[in-house]
Amino acid sequence: MKKTVSGSISLAIILALALIFAAGCNSGSPPPAGDQPADTPPTAPASGETFHLNISFSTPEQNSVGITESLDRIQELSNGRITMTYYFSWQLSSVPTIVDDLRTGLVDMGIVPLNMHPSVFQHSTVPDIPLLGYPTTRDIGQIYDEAMAAFPILRDEYTNAGLVYYTNFPQPPYNMYTGGVDPIRTPADLAGRRLTVSDIMLQMMIDQNGGAAVAMPFPDLAIGMSTGVTEGGIIHINTMRAFGALDFADTAIMMDGGFVTGVMALAFSQRTWDRLPDDLKQLFIDEAPLIRDNQADFNLFLAENNERWFTEEHGGEMVWLTDSEVALWREGLADVVDVFLDDMYGLGATQIREVYAGVQELVAARVS
Q1: At the fourth CATH level, which superfamily is domain 2-28+49-170+261-304?
Q2: How many Cα atoms within 13 Å fall on the side-chain side of residue 227?
Q3: What is the C-alpha to C-alpha distance for residues 117 and 262, in angstroms, rounded to an integer?
Q4: Contact 231/196 with Cβ under 8 angstroms?
Q5: Most C-beta atoms within 10 A of its C-beta, which of 161, 312, 352, 367?
Q6: Strand, coil or helix: what is 248?
Q7: Which stretches does DSSP call E strand in the chain?
Q8: For 187-214, what is each residue's pLDDT tens digit?
Q9: Cα(173)–Cα(199) distance, rounded to whole angstroms?
Q10: 10 Å Cβ neighbour count for 319?
């Protein structure tokens, strides 16, 4: 039975910015049931030793449906050999401590925001590089798993941290939401503007074009926008709605695939994984792709609901950038990305350019 509990680039700069993080939001009714296991479910394991797992979520309960449906199913198929307690919204762990909490076994399995721990998951910063052009939200998570298979260094980074990579779920596209100001359609429009964004490369681009990247935890974004400290943020709409910041936005600057996105990993403590017998491990393995794809679908469903609220009820305007405007953003980011890759290489990510090229090829294969 489950239980729930509610509730210039340098490493120093990246780690300081890693405290800017946000969860999703709740909006509307759940979507139709997503992918289900194969028609012939795995055989339930026989009785034996029991295991209780503490699961840490960054997201609130209502935003975690794609994950909890699978975890509930695992518990059912285990015939009582696995039970879990779900801790939502960082009730058990936190952004800065989740890696250590998994390593020590305080958390048995948990959501890890990879871009908040670039010193640990150096090569896993690649899927979060801006303007990679993922065709769909599902593609983001699937491409990360394909890159994991192609580049063992990605999995090794989990192992070296005392973790076991399990699966992932992608965030919806991050677009730009501002209030009461002229739309920012090109990098040149950033001059004199104040925006909050967690991505280090977008922060650099804002600064290079005469704007100001305002460091602010996303839960404080609504207050920052209402007081004029920041004009808005580049983040996914679910976070904007969750923390009330979307109430202060009048304009959404949109592009296909978003300015950037993010991959959230679901990882086991190595200690916990090693304790599980093979038949119970297989229950988790069978559900891994379903968690990835169903949570991606659920996040996208929430985003589409929030977009409808923004335009139809709130009266906001969605401005879609033209191909020529997107090209200007891409051109402006090229040098910034080069600096980022060089600096990460200098910090020890010796295969980061190979991983970046590989991810670009995987994206291109899905776009063509």
Answers
A1: Bacterial extracellular solute-binding protein, family 7 (3.40.190.170)
A2: 6
A3: 13
A4: no
A5: 352
A6: helix
A7: 2-5, 51-56, 82-87, 109-113, 163-170, 175-178, 194-195, 212-213, 232-235, 251-254, 263-269, 317-320
A8: 999 999 999 998 889 999 999 999 999 9
A9: 13
A10: 16
Residue type, 78: S
CA distance 251 to 255: 13
In the chain, what are the domain boundaries? 2-28+49-170+261-304
Per-residue pLDDT reduced to its tens digit, 298-340: 999 999 999 999 999 999 999 999 999 999 999 999 999 999 9
24: which 2 tokens? 């999703």
**Helix (H) and strand (E) counts in the chain:** 12, 12
Contact 27, 302 (CB under 8 A): yes
Cα(181)–Cα(176) distance, integer angstroms: 12
DSSP assignments along 283-322, one per residue: HHHHHHHHHHHHHHHHHHHHHHHHHHIIIIIS--EEEEPP
- Are 257 and 263 spatial neighbours (Cβ–Cβ below 8 Å)? no
Quote the Cα angle for 260-263-264, to 5°.
140
**Is the distance from CB of 215 to CB of 20 less than 8 angstroms?**
yes
